[in-house]
């Protein structure tokens, strides 16, 4: 199984498994901006290259200042810790705040469970229903937080792509404050949502000392290989996370890229509009395929269910034609037939859907 290292986007394992060249794979299993990085990024990185002989700023001060001013007057640089991807920040939350019991809403990003297991935490899972588009019931969630020391929630959730309304998330955050439960809100894909600023707790974070917001710059700005993310929270909590971070974990090129990328507002808006249009088109295409159901998503990927076909078999059939999809059968709360598809360019999506159609036909008729 190519997800044996835990995630999508592993074109190297896929190339090894399916006998393909890694660069020839059209990757629908990781959810990266289809436009690639903003054009000028490479010349900015080239200019910064001679400085790699020095250690990077261990506190990312310029980037934290830029982030704080981009987030508005309620956030100061002391409320931010920059990490080697949002993944590092998520790990730091568990290692610094030492929860005994971690709550996970299923299905969700596999890293939450992996991090909690590595740290020896007890794990409690709250399962959601496909009839509710895999969204948790808010009252149930408010009661669930009493049982755990830390809860992870994807906002938007991965692999579903949807999220609770802000008023519901606020209820959950207040329940967490009441019960001293840390609420880790993973906003890695929020940048892709139209009017993202209307869906985040960032403006009320100063009243919520148990809430942490995790952001990734690798997806929107297509710099997954450079690694850059950050976490926003109360100054004291951020200090605890920082005390566990490996020195110089954010390299100089990533810091320089981050400062430049934060100014790319037009690129972000263009991406949001493009992704929304292509997502709607893809949903319409998928509706024409027999036995295929897609779930509601507001971001740059779709959770899809295919009747009577095993996810891995479908993945293999599509890989023979150069397209890598995410097998989601192993997610707790999902099972056979679930896959996840990224939203890419119009032309790539058309190719992917035609390969999906052909593969389904071959697998269902044997021809
Ligand atoms: C939901 C979610 N959160 C966080 C991350 C980690 O992002 P980063 O590349 O910034 O470490 C991922 C990566 O796939 C993700 O899917």
TrEMBL record:
Q: Where is the Aminotransferase class I/classII large domain?
A: 26-355
Q: What Pfam families does its record include? A: Aminotran_1_2
Q: Which domain of life is it from?
A: Bacteria
- Quote the catalytic activity from the record: O-phospho-L-threonine + H(+) = (R)-1-aminopropan-2-yl phosphate + CO2
Key words of the record: Cobalamin biosynthesis, Lyase, Pyridoxal phosphate
Alphabetized PROSITE patterns for the sequence: AA_TRANSFER_CLASS_1 (PS00105)
Pathway of action: Cofactor biosynthesis; adenosylcobalamin biosynthesis
CDD domains under this entry? AAT_like
Q: Specify whether rRNA-binding is a keyword of the entry.
A: no
Cofactor(s) listed: pyridoxal 5'-phosphate
Q: Which InterPro entries match?
A: Aminotransferase_I/II_large, CobD, NHTrfase_class1_PyrdxlP-BS, PyrdxlP-dep_Trfase, PyrdxlP-dep_Trfase_major, PyrdxlP-dep_Trfase_small
Q: What is the E.C. number?
A: 4.1.1.81
Give a GO biological-process term.
cobalamin biosynthetic process
Entry's Gene Ontology molecular function annotations: pyridoxal phosphate binding; threonine-phosphate decarboxylase activity
What's this protein's function?
Decarboxylates L-threonine-O-3-phosphate to yield (R)-1-amino-2-propanol O-2-phosphate, the precursor for the linkage between the nucleotide loop and the corrin ring in cobalamin.
What PANTHER family would the database entry show?
HISTIDINOL-PHOSPHATE AMINOTRANSFERASE-RELATED, THREONINE-PHOSPHATE DECARBOXYLASE
Q: Please give the name of this protein.
A: threonine-phosphate decarboxylase
